[in-house]
Structure formats: structure tokens, C-alpha cells
Design a protein that fits this description.
Alpha-Beta Plaits, MutS, DNA mismatch repair protein, domain I, 2 domains, five-stranded mixed β-sheet, 44% helix, 20% strand, DNA/RNA_pol_sf
Length: 180
Amino acid sequence: MRVAALWFPDWPVQAARIDHQDTDELPATLAIARQHRIRVCSAAARHAGVRRDMRVRQAQAVCPGLVVLDEDLDRDGRMFESIAAGLDDVASSIEVLRPGLVVVDAGAAGRFHGSEDRAVEMLIDAAARRGIDAQVGVADEIATALIAARVGAGQVVPEGGSRPFLDVQPVTLLAAEASL
């Protein structure tokens, strides 16, 4: 079975931006924290030197304009519901592993839409309609599809090509995703 994984990088940051879009403007340097430690941050914050698991005070010293919000798992889930619903319009077999990470039966979606490539394109378009950043990976099994999504947008591992693809990936990719 072919699997497509859609990964929404820094989902808690994206969810916070969606949640605050009507009330106030959030800066590019944004981070989400739990127990005084950075859990996730925006690309701009990473570029300024902020890292996951960094103490909030240290992160603010490295990046003085950094806005830090408290982790809100309810917000993350609530904001992801509409994304999942939009993806469900394209493929009936979506499974939300966590807010910000979805897997789809790419074979079934490909048969319905005429090709695997067309189905993947439609899934990305469904996410992009909402102004959300998403990356997709396609492979023979879930774990490889997740890694392919994290490696680069639109990464398609050929059928039977999981082992050669995984052989060249850093082991740190496995630790980066709790769903693995």
C-alpha cells in the first residue's frame, strides 16, 4: 500500500497564527513554550538562533523580538480540524496522527483521482487554500512517508525504494517525530 504523509512544519506556531489572525499581528519570530522551555519555533526564530528545548529566557536573549506563547494543545487540535476536513474532501481515507501530521492511502486516492501524482497535488492544494505550509512525502509505508515529508516537499520514494532512501537519511530524523 502506498502512503502519503502530509506534515505541517511547526504546526503549533501555524495554529497560533491562525488563531490570532483577527485580533493582532504576531511577529515573524514566534515560539511556543511549555514549562519555560521552547517546544517549537518559527523559521525566523530558528534563523535568529532559537532552538527547541532552549530555556525561554535564553531564547529571548538570543532573539530580543521573540514572542513566546504558552503551549495550547486544544488550540492546535481545534485549528487543525478545518485542515483535516479540507483534506477529507480530496481523500476519504485520511488519518490524523496528531495535529500537524496526516497520512493518506495514496493508492486509493490515486486510483480515484487518476494518478498518485494528481492526488498528492490535490492534497497540497487543499492545505494551501488555507494559507498553511505543508510538505508531503510518499512511500510504501507510513514511517518512510513521514521521513520523506520531513526531508523535502514533494519527496516521492519509488515503489520498493524505501531501503535505499532510508540508508542515506540521518538517524536524527527518527528522533524528530514522536509518531515514529
